Fold:
Amino acid sequence: MYKKQISFDFDHCLTFTDVRLVAKQLIKSGDYNVFITTARWPDPMTQLWEPDANNDDLYAIMDEIGLERTKV
Structure:
């Protein structure tokens, strides 16, 4: 079965509760391949420019909506 592809920007989009609810519903439906697009660096790279920077908030929201971490 062909699934439609949809992506959500993370900062200032998926960080909003109502957008997360939509994403969660799309994932739960099973009709969509949902991805997150972001300009953030992977964790090891973030610390080159910002000490103590990480993507914990990104991963927490991915866990909340039920999205695999490979979908970034």
User: Anything to note?
Assistant: Residues 60 and 66 are 10 Å apart (CA to CA).
